[in-house]
Amino acid sequence: MSLPDLNLLVTLDVLLTEGSVTGAARRLRLSPSAMSRALARLRETLGDPLLVRAGRGLVPTPRALELRERVSHLVQGAEAVLRPAEKLDLKRLVRTFTLRTSEGFVESFGPALIERTGAEAPGVRLRFVAKPDKDSGPLRAGAVDLETGVVDEDTSPELRTQALFRDRFIGVVRSDHPLGRAKITPARYAAGRHVVFSRRGVAKGRIDESLAALGLAREVVTIVGGFATAIALARATDLIATVPDHHTRSLRDGLFSFALPFAAPEITVSLLWHPRLDADPAHRWLRDSVREVVAGGEETAARSGRAGQRREPRKRRRG
Asked: What is the model's pTM?
């Protein structure tokens, strides 16, 4: 089945508005004969004469009167679709964005992001959902607008990505843990009992590969599915949790955190979104907001980290 010529909609709209072949031809910059041929095609397509002679002029048929307003709306809508996007008015923007984030991201950056977006766009609501896996289906289906995570070989190649920050793994124990009473060496770290985070339930990972290169292995007592759970267990037991630094800062109050005493891999946390939203002005504004909030948080965290490093030796001497 062949598709109808949609250009006829514009011709019909002008003809019904002008009520004259000559007037319509002038408006569309066509010759009267070309406009007469277009009217003939419309009559054949719609099965109605549309405009009939009455004296010296033309009058619309009942079918033409029925179509006039509908056709006008269709043409205006098409023109709006094909027109460049208007400048984004944040004060009038009403929209809910769904962000799927790794554990700890909301705690670390959510308050500042909510404050910023609320001040710039009062009608915008942020909906944060957990990220149980790396499936790109929710982004592809439009159920999620923006996601944070580590880009690797499992990431769908169709997604747009942009790096946010690099993160390092650190160790976390309760404040009076024996590990914090003396210099932390690779051997002392490995000799402890460990809680490991893994969405897939895997006991060994890149930390264990780094230890193996030193001829060491750690005892994994339990595996959990989230950073917060690992930190909660470290707070209440003698277990050692190894977690990303920036993602967990707000979760580690009252605990003893330490740099790993061996070379450990770092991760790059990125923004991910579907390409259909790439040019959307509101989505672009949200991406910029997330990047700037994270950058501000990184700068603050770096200052706090330098101050913490200066205080740490005194803390250990008191222990």
From this structure: 0.65
Provide the pLDDT confidence category of residue 1 given band limits of 50, 70 and 90. low
Whole-angstrom Cα distance, residue 42 to residue 11? 9
The helix (H) or strand (E) run that includes residue 59 is: strand 57-60
If you search the block for the tokens 């404040």, which residue do you land on? 175
CA distance linking residue 163 with residue 262, whole number of Å: 25
* Percent helix, percent strand, percent coil in the chain, to nearest 5: 50, 20, 30
Residue 200 burial (10 A CB sphere; 0-12, 13-18, 19+): exposed
The vertex-27 CA angle with 26 and 33, nearest 5°, equals 40
What is the Cα–Cα distance from 115 to 112, expressed in whole angstroms? 5
Helical (H) or strand (E) element with 60: strand 57-60
Contacts of 62 (CB under 8 A, 6+ apart): none
3-state secondary structure of 125: strand
Question: Contact 8/20 with Cβ under 8 angstroms?
Answer: no
β-strand pairing of 267-273 with 146-150: antiparallel
Beta carbons of 169 and 244 less than 8 angstroms apart: yes
From the list 127, 130, 129, the residue with the least C-alpha distance to 114 is 127
Strand partners, 101: 130
Tokens of 68: 């006039």
Q: What is the pLDDT of residues 104-145, one digit of tens each?
A: 788 889 999 999 999 999 999 999 998 877 788 889 888 999
- CA distances to 72, 164, 290, 291 from 297, in Å: 51, 11, 10, 10
The neighbour count for residue 97, using CB atoms within 10 Å, is 20
**Integer Cα distance of 28 and 31 in angstroms:** 9
User: How, if at all, do strands 193-197 and 240-244 pair?
Assistant: parallel
Q: What is residue 289's three-state secondary structure?
A: helix
Whole-angstrom CA distances from 187 to 10, 184, 212 are 79, 8, 11
